[in-house]
Specification:
Number of helices: 2
Largest sheet: 2 strands, antiparallel
Helix content: 25-40%
Oligomer: single chain
Structural class: alpha+beta
Strand order of the largest sheet: 1-2
Length: 110
């Protein structure tokens, strides 16, 4: 059994000595905030913008897609097709009928 070490926290008050875990803290003095400002950038309308929000608003109004923010169409699963679903239902139905008829797979149990 491991030794338990006690420490006195007050006169005649003891507790088990445990390793104290300090919470993870950043070395930065303040939280990191992403600002709305950016270097002057030309949009396709020929104007220069220093606000990210304004730059994106103009781009969306002109029908542009910002790379990394586009919405991709949902992926189609191969198992979503009607043929696959029908075949799966038939396979399960056949398995249930065989089980009800008394068919049991052979097992190699001693």
């Amino acid at each position: 059994m491991p030794e338990i070490e006690l420490i006195e926290i007050e006169p005649n008050k003891w507790r088990v000595k445990r390793q104290i875990h300090t919470p993870a803290r950043s070395g930065l003095p303040l939280p990191y905030v992403i600002s709305d400002t950016m270097p002057e950038t030309e949009q396709v309308d020929g104007k220069f913008y220093t606000s990210k929000a304004e730059f994106r608003r103009v781009g969306r109004s002109l029908g542009l897609t910002e790379v990394g923010n586009e919405r991709l169409p949902p992926k189609k699963r191969a198992t979503d097709s009607a043929v696959v679903k029908r075949e799966r239902r038939q396979a399960v139905q056949i398995a249930i009928e065989k089980y009800k008829a008394g068919h049991r797979p052979r097992t190699n149990r001693p």
